[in-house]
Protein 1
Amino acid sequence: MNNPIAALDSLSLAFLVAAIAWAMTNKRSELGSGARVAIIATLITMILRDFSNVLQWTGVTQFFDQYLEDFIEILIPLFLGFFLYTFLQDKMVTSLKSSAQERQLILDSLSESLMFINRDLNIEWTNKAAEALFERSPNEMIGHKCHSILHNSDIPCDECPVIRAISSGRIEENEVSAFSAKTLHMTAHPVIGPTGRIIGALESVVDISPRKKMEQQLAGASKMEAIGKLAGGVAHDFNNILTAIIGFAECGIEEAQESPTEKQNPQLEALFKNIIESGQRAADLTQQLLAFGRRQILHPRIIDLNEIITGTLNMLSRMIGEDIDLRLNLADGAILLSADRAQIEQVIMNLAVNARDAMPNGGKIEIITQVTETVRNFADDPVHAPPGLYASIIIQDSGKGMEPDVLNKLFDPFFTTKNNGTGLGLSVTYGIVKQHGGWISAYSEKNIGSVFKVYLPMAHHEEPTQDPIMKIPGSVQLDGRGIGILIVEDEARILDFVSTSLTRRNFRVFTAETFSDGLKTFETVQDECQIVLSDVVLPDGSGVDLVEKIWAVKPSLSVILSSGYTEERAGLDRIRSSGFLYLPKPYPLTKLLSTISEAMQTNILNQDTPDVSQKPAIPLSEKKGIDQPVKKGNH
Ligand SMILES: Nc1ncnc2c1ncn2[C@@H]1O[C@H](COP(=O)(O)OP(=O)(O)O)[C@@H](O)[C@H]1O
Ligand SMILES: [Mg+2]
């Protein structure tokens, strides 16, 4: 057995067979198909060699054996060489494959969506984020035109950043709102091939829809803020003008009633009444603008939301009509809020009336109350409402719903889609809810219905407070009996109307137009003055500061604050907590007189009560270094 092949005995052959079988069947083996062919060929050769040994042993044919042996001797090194070559080649391919796999894994771990798009706009490669973003498998994307996948379009898009990047050789960006109403930010990076030619672009796509939504909400909120300020400012000026118009018309009626018959125009009184009525309508409108601008004075109490809803149920059912099925689904127990009852009732009414208007042929309205605890990232909370317990009122209807462009303008004042709508219902609702520290959201689907959700902060108190008994307005037949009243008002017309009306009723009227003027005048007349009526917003300071200063000097004084609006919440709270009487503008003469009558009664009580503060009535100018006072007023 000098034959090298014959040196292999049966045992080593069995060993080789086992090793090769293991290499070929083991899944983790890195042997490629070429190596497998080489191994099989070697194996066959070895079997043939053993077969030749058998032939030799049996002595069947010397000749055949000689040729076979030579043949095998050539084949063995040939096959072994082939095996070595293919094995090394497979190794290289495998290592290339594994580094490509590794790269794919790395790129798949990115949250940014990536795609390689070639010059023909075919997608050649994607990562997992891109597949997830476009909700497609790699097979559905690779080899397809990018515009058909991204934009469902047969033609390339205008302003396509990939086309621009391929032609300019620069990074190009674009923002598109296309796929599933998402807003996508696309950046195309040109990819330069080995020859220096641009072979395509790597496009990275970021879904910026959440950021866009937030930006829109912020823009919406600041728009509402700006319109609110404007509306509040206009309403303030209007209130002043209306106070004068209504007031003078009332003076006109009085004049008409009192003047000698021969001079009297029989229609004069009716004409003045018309002026008052129209003025009152304008005043109602300004009141709504104030509500939207969050400038009206609230009268918050601890109230039970469920009780308010059941309390308004009768009125609600009458208002929405019989063809609408009104259902209540109220949370168990009381939901306590610190809120202005009338305002919350108005919110419910406005939303219910809109729901009714959306269902001209009948339908269903459901009013639901819930307690919601908000945490930091509460989904429905675009307005920095602090986390905590909120009472929610949900009003949903089965009406015609709204298009997205209506939804976007919903809370704008004067926005209406109705022929006879005012467009104020929702803007007023928005203002009231915001003024109570809450927020409102709307959701709608065309021809299915709409849902409005109002969130209001819950109260920490335990018991609802009773509404005070309404005071009957005082009589117009008021006699001032020479009582001194200081009126501080920067609107000359109002000052004129108030002082004329009061002088006619035997008051001693002192007037001032500014904060400093008010202080000076008070110094001079403080002994004769029992009542102060001051506007809240004065050109050189706050009327609240002024009356607090004056009152500190003479605590027996009755104080009335009057305003068309209050600039901020702090101001509202101060008026409320001061305990001073409040006269909202525009006020008709009857309201002015009834408030003054109330002030006169408090004044009498104050006179009876010993002055506990024992403050001497020292001139204020001595403290503040104000010049010698100038007395003003009509006597
Ligand atoms: N529940 C609702 N269903 C459908 N559309 C509504 C609903 N609520 C409000 N809207 C839309 O919002 C607009 C503004 O409402 P609003 O401010 O109350 O004013 P108005 O009721 O006077 O039109 C309405 O004209 C209507 O198009
Ligand atoms: Mg409405």
Protein 2
Amino acid sequence: MRKSLDEIFERVESISKKLSVKAIEDAISDIKDKFSSNVFYLVVLGQFKRGKSTFTNYILGNDMLPTGVVPLTSVITKVQYSIDVWVKVLYEDGMIDNIDIKELDLYCTEKNNPQNIKK
Ligand SMILES: Nc1nc2c(ncn2[C@@H]2O[C@H](COP(=O)(O)OP(=O)(O)O)[C@@H](O)[C@H]2O)c(=O)[nH]1
Ligand SMILES: [Mg+2]
């Protein structure tokens, strides 16, 4: 599948070059970069209290995301593979804090970070 996708990318790229369609050339270049980095996003979307965090914890095999009956996750929480457990808080102004997993709920819950006041 990887190989046939690579072939498709090559064909689309060569066609877009022949036709000089910059938008397609840029798009295919982006897709090729994403594809070669071996990273994809699985996005879990849904209304409050619908079990998104519970579902994500189940996939992870680890209860690292807080779950509960009141709306809990108030900010976008991104989980990625790693051997060690680490948590980074990314602030709107670009600042980054390294925190302990036990402190995660201080940032991503409505109770401890209402309306994302910590930004
Ligand atoms: N009955 C039932 N409750 C669930 C299920 N999944 C999650 N819950 C409960 O629903 C509540 C909200 O779950 P949570 O994962 O925090 O929801 P989120 O806001 O979508 O992330 C929690 O009390 C969970 O225990 C399910 O499949 N069935
Ligand atoms: Mg949640």
